[in-house]
Design goal:
This protein has a 5-stranded antiparallel β-sheet with strand order 2-3-1-4-5. The chain has 254 residues and is α+β, with helices and mostly antiparallel strands. The chain has 9 helices and 5 strands, in the order ααααααβαββααββ. 30% of the residues are buried. Strand 2 and strand 3 form a beta hairpin. The chain starts with a helix and ends with a strand. The chain is 46% helix and 17% strand. It folds into 2 domains: 117 residues, no CATH class; 101 residues, Alpha-Beta Plaits (2-Layer Sandwich), CATH 3.30.70.100. Helix 1 packs parallel to helix 5. Keywords: Membrane, Transmembrane, Transmembrane helix.
């Protein structure tokens, strides 16, 4: 029936945390072709992380099965069938390999555009902060320690979001504004999360409290019909050796 030719790429998509699917949908959302709430799909991509080895193994096995089946000849009158099967199997093999390789190919480009970062939401953290070994002696001769970036989260209250499309639109507006600010400011941002039901938006990154212009972000949202205020200034995560993180919350009601 040739069903194994289609199963391979689907298993590869699941084995890559839906990377290519998220890339296409987020690109359509970014250019205004689709307005949909992709948060459920992104949560699914994160939850698939524990089953990556199973999906990848099944994808490779399925494509190999298709290649084996395409070499079988049933009768002299069916000579065209193996040729057609080989063509379809080659396409399936290429699609499976490209789908599995997509996260590794896109990860070095994640800093170039928010759409690429969104497509990697199910993969391992892109830029986890380096943890400092507190057991190192102070007179270590290897040179001074490089300052560890402090992870921060700016939280905004955003009003008048009535659906997932509104939340997606707000995220696009904010990420475009942050990308423009980044050209002249040293802060970094990893992702923007929007919960349209709770009316909350979070910006994750480093040096946000010192360099991100919150007033500019709130002005852009207000001009587009989404009045907002920053009700929690920052949730700061400081690495403490290999034990984890200390979290500090700074309130700034506006």
């Amino acid at each position: 029936m040739g069903l194994e030719i289609y199963i391979g790429p689907v298993l590869a998509l699941l084995g890559s945390n839906l990377c290519l699917l998220l890339l296409v949908l987020n690109a359509c959302d970014w250019f205004g072709l689709v307005h949909a709430d992709l948060s459920a799909l992104e949560r699914l991509a994160v939850n698939l992380d524990d089953f990556q080895l199973h999906f990848r193994t099944a994808a490779v096995a399925t494509v190999l099965l298709a290649l084996l089946l395409c070499t079988r000849t049933t009768s002299p009158s069916d000579q065209a069938i193996p040729k057609e099967r080989r063509r379809r199997s080659a396409i399936a093999l290429f699609a499976t390999a490209a789908t599995l390789a997509a996260p590794r190919l896109l990860r070095p480009l994640s800093h170039m555009h928010p759409v690429i970062r969104r497509s990697l939401v199910g993969s391992a953290a892109l830029e986890e902060p380096r943890r400092v070994d507190v057991s190192r002696s102070e007179d270590d001769s290897t040179g001074p320690d490089v300052p560890t970036p402090v992870r921060q989260e700016l939280v905004f209250e955003v009003n008048k979001m009535t659906c997932g499309g509104c939340g997606s639109h707000v995220r696009n507006l904010v990420e475009k504004a942050l990308a423009a600010q980044q050209r002249d400011s040293p802060f970094t941002f990893d992702k923007v999360e929007v919960d349209w039901r709770a009316g909350v938006m979070s910006v994750h990154g480093t040096q946000l409290t010192d360099h991100l212009n919150k007033e500019d972000v709130m002005q852009i949202l207000g001009e587009d019909g989404y009045p907002s205020r920053s009700f929690i200034q920052a949730l700061t995560k400081l690495p403490i050796g290999f034990c984890g993180y200390l979290e500090f919350e700074f309130l700034n009601i506006r």
